[in-house]
Design brief:
This protein has about 100 residues and is an alpha+beta fold. The protein has helices spanning about 55-60, 85-95, and strands spanning about 1-5, 25-30, 35-40, 45, 50, 75-80, 80-85. A hairpin with a 6-residue loop joins strand 2 and strand 3. Helix content is about 20%, strand content about 20%. It has a 3-stranded antiparallel sheet, with no helix packed on it. It folds into 2 domains: about 1-60, no CATH class; about 60-95, no CATH class. It is built from 2 helices and 7 strands; from the N terminus they run βββββαββα. It binds zinc ion (ZN) (3 copies).
Length: about 100
């Protein structure tokens, strides 16, 4: 779920803090399954109802590698917005 939280730590008004301080309305995503704070990026469940972390998304449904299109059995890796299987991740790193 998306929540707006006050993360303002009382920054000085000379630094531009006011009632419109960006940090007072920081959008933060929480996983709807495990309740964890999702630090980077989030996934939406297939029905579009829930915001999920990668771990819970993997438990809810099998992930498919964005590169080779195979189901990911083991660990999935994230490369930007792509989800990769271990083999494809290794291939990518070899090329870089
Ligand atoms: Zn502030
Ligand atoms: Zn989760
Ligand atoms: Zn792959």
């Amino acid at each position: 779920m998306l929540r707006y939280e006050n993360h303002c730590v009382g920054c000085a008004s000379s630094l531009g803090c006011s009632s419109t301080c960006r940090l007072r309305h920081l959008p933060v995503y929480y996983c709807d399954d495990c309740g964890d704070l999702i630090e980077e990026g989030h996934f939406t469940s297939p029905d579009g109802e829930k915001d999920l972390c990668l771990d819970c998304l993997m438990e809810e449904n099998k992930l498919v590698c964005d590169n080779c299109g195979k189901e990911i059995d083991g660990e999935a890796f994230r490369d930007g917005s792509d989800v990769l299987c271990l083999e494809c991740l290794c291939e990518f790193y070899k090329k870089r």
